[in-house]
Every structure is written in C-alpha cells, then in structure tokens.
Specification:
The structure is a single chain. By secondary structure, this protein is an all-alpha fold. The protein has one domain: MFS general substrate transporter like domains (Growth Hormone, Chain: A). 84% of the residues lie in helices and 0% in strands. The chain has 16 helices and no strands. Helix 2 (10-40) packs antiparallel against helix 7, helix 4 (74-97) packs antiparallel against helix 5 and helix 6 packs antiparallel against helix 11. The longest helix is centred in the first third of the chain and has 31 residues, at 10-40.
C-alpha cells in the first residue's frame, strides 16, 4: 500500500501546510472583517460594499493575473502575494484600533479591495502549481485534502476563534492573520519545482491565446458560466448572513462563529467524501446533486428562524459546494494544457468569481428594497429565497446543457 500523499510528497506537504495557515487567517477575517464593518455602520448597502470590494478584483484582474502567472515563478509569486496581504491586514488592524466611525467603512472597503487584489494572484497561482507537485492520478486526493484543510482551518476553527478574539479586542484577529500569512510565505518559499515552461510572447497575444482556448472548449466555457451564476447567488445570500445571524437568529459574534464552523464541518465532509460519491453515482449526477442541494438549503435558511435548523442547512449547503469544487477543479487541471493553465484557469475564475461582487451588491440592494415594503426581517430573508429560485433555474439549465466529457 502506498504511503499517504502528505507523507510521501515533501513539496505537497509544504503547500498543504501553507494553505492551511492562510486559510486559518482567512477564516478569522471572514468573521472579523464584516463584524468590524457592523461596528462602523448598520447600513446593509455599506456592509455589502465591503464584501463586494473584496471580490471585485476577480472581475478586474483575473484575466491579466493569468498571463502574469504563466510568465512568472509561481512559487515566488505565491510567497510575495502572501507577504503583501500581511501588510494590508496590518493596515486594517490599525483601522480597527481607532474609534469606529461610519465614514471609516469606506476606508475598510478600499483595504478589502487591495486585499482581494493580492488574493487573485495568490489563489490562481496556488491552483496552477498543484499539477506540477502531484501526479495526475493524485489530483482528486490532493484537491480533496486541500479543500478539507481550507474548510477545517478557514471555517471550522477560524470563525469561532475570531469570535473569541473579538471579545478581547476587535484588532486581535487581524494580527493573527498577518502572522499566519508571513509564516505561510516562508513555507511556500521552501518548495522546489520542476522547470516551468514560461510564456515568451507579449502580454496581449498571450492573453488572447488563453481566451481563444477557453472559447473553443464549450464544456469548460459552459461550466464557467454556470459557476459564475452559482457564485452570484451564493454571495447575494451570504453577504447579509452576519445581519441575519444578529437580527433574526439573535447570535453573538461567538455564536455566529459556531454557525460558520458547523458549515465548515459539512465542507470537510463534502471534500473527503467527494471521490467516493463520484465513484458511486458519476461526475454528471454529482454536479446535479450539488445544484439540487443549493436550491433546497437556501430555501430552508430563508424560511427558518431557528439557529439549529439554519446550521444544519449550512452544513448541507457546504457539503454540496465542496462536492462541486473537488469534481470541477480536478477535471479542469487535467483538461487544460500546462503551458496555458495559468491563463485559462484565470479566465475560468473571471467568470466564476467575477460575479461575486455583483452578487454581494445585489444582496444589499434586495434587503434595502424589500425592507421599505415588507419590513426588516422579511428583507433579511429575501436574498436566501431569491437564491433558492435561481438555483432551481440553474439546475434546469444544467440538466439539458451542462455535460462534462
């Protein structure tokens, strides 16, 4: 019997450990950043603007990031991006140490935009470096373990830890994240890679080459468009989760952290169980299952006022999400030629992630519009119910048009 991947592959172990550290920090920030925003303002549009600002760089910079990744040393790029993110987090910590003022939320949004810009480079480079570290037959296992670690540290440990740290001081979670990013950068720097085929053409011809490849691959293009709509609905619903938890479920920062941790357990279950699920029912049926799960769980959350029921729905929602991720990321890493992986992967994520800031803004707009007609509580439920309807429409489209070869 072969030794586990983490035991026999030193470079993968370094990348895995670095990812676990950065995702721990991201998990802490996923609660601390919107919580800091709510200390500055209760305006749902302003709070959604902070969430949107963090995702907006995927719309602006995903395409050029792909060319940069294919032209640069991906190992050094990841390490430098983590160090840059650490510096930005320290700036947010300084902001948190001051007295929260409503106008400061826009400064926070600006820093979130810079943080997201560095994340675009870091995350795309991390996905493209994995096929150079592990063998093709190990991609599902490697991606499953990476996603599991991301959810375990980023959602199961990070948010409740943030809730405890916020109780001691709102600036503390940001200091922890900065330290984790610096340590992760050091681990990535130690990775050794085989020689990388670099793009020698100029920027625009290299970008156009990636766009043409993506355009000609119809299954990949359709998958990217569906992912974009899925993530639009996800951000539309979950951007206001912090207000939903506070005002509908009556949770504290620690309670909200526990809610997110339960969701993370579902994500870990989905990540680790995905290979077995795919082996049993097939890739195509697994994708349809994920879409069905999303629609049902959004509806349950939108109709419930019970924290236990919402926690169970979030657990199931994230199980479906990780099932989708493990399947599609592994399929994509095999399908795209190594020399084009950075560019095509970034174009794919332009569709998939570029919609997220638009979804975040849509969530805030829905709350603001519905509140004037139906009241605050119904307004906070409306994004989840809208996402449920949208997911049902996506499932219908996928049944007829989404086929993975």
């Amino acid at each position: 019997m072969a030794a586990p991947l983490l035991v026999r592959n030193h470079n993968y172990r370094l990348l895995f450990s670095a990812g676990a550290l950065t995702n721990l920090g991201d998990g802490v920030i996923s609660l601390a950043l919107p919580w800091l925003a709510t200390l500055m303002t209760r305006d749902p549009m302003a709070i959604s603007a902070v969430a949107a600002a963090g995702r907006l760089p995927w719309l602006f910079f995903a395409l050029p990031a792909g060319v940069i990744i294919d032209r640069a040393d991906r190992r050094k790029l990841i390490a430098r991006a983590d160090l840059l993110r650490a510096a930005i987090i320290l700036a947010i910590m300084v902001l948190a140490l001051g007295s929260p003022q409503p106008a400061a939320v826009w400064v926070l949004a600006g820093l979130a935009f810079l943080l997201g810009s560095a994340e675009v480079l870091r995350d795309n480079a991390a996905q493209t470096i994995l096929p150079a570290i592990v063998a093709p037959q190990d991609l599902e296992a490697a991606n499953g373990q990476m996603w599991s670690a991301e959810q375990l540290t980023g959602q199961f440990i990070g948010p409740p830890l943030a809730g405890l740290l916020i109780g001691a001081g709102i600036a503390l979670p940001f200091g922890l994240d900065a330290a984790a990013l610096v340590l992760a950068a050091g681990l990535v720097w130690l990775i050794t890679l085989p020689p990388q085929m670099r793009v020698s053409s100029r920027f625009w011809p290299a970008l156009v080459e990636g766009i043409r490849w993506m355009r000609d691959d119809k299954p990949l293009l359709r998958l990217a468009v569906v992912l974009g709509l899925v993530n639009f609905l996800y951000m539309m619903a979950t951007t206001i989760t912090v207000l939903f938890a506070q005002e509908v479920l009556g949770l504290s920062a620690a309670g909200h952290g526990v809610l997110l941790s339960i969701a993370a357990v579902g994500a870990v279950a989905g990540s680790l169980g995905a290979p077995a699920i795919v082996a049993r029912i097939g890739t195509q049926a697994s994708l349809f299952t994920a879409l069905t799960i999303w629609g049902l769980t959004y509806a349950v959350i939108g109709l419930s006022s019970n924290a236990v029921v919402v926690a169970a729905a979030l657990f199931t929602l994230m199980t479906g999400s990780m099932l989708w991720n493990v399947i599609t990321v592994s399929w994509r890493q095999r399908r795209i030629p190594p020399a084009l992986l950075g560019r095509v992967n970034s174009i794919y994520r332009f569709f998939g992630w570029g919609s997220m800031p638009l979804g975040a803004l849509a969530g805030g707009m829905i709350v603001s519009l519905v509140e004037t007609e139906a009241g605050r509580e119904m307004a906070l439920r409306a994004p989840f119910l809208t996402a449920a309807g949208g997911s049902a429409l996506l499932l219908l489209y996928a049944l007829f048009r989404l086929r993975l070869k």
